[in-house]
Amino acid sequence: MMTRRPVDTGDPERLYTVTGGRCRADDDSLDLVTLIVTECEPSHGMQSEHVRILELCRAPTAVVEISAELRLPVTVVRILLCDLLVTGRVTARHPPVGRFRGSLPDTDLLKEVLDGLRNL
Question: Please, which domain of life does this record's source organism belong to (predicted)?
Answer without folding.
Answer: Bacteria
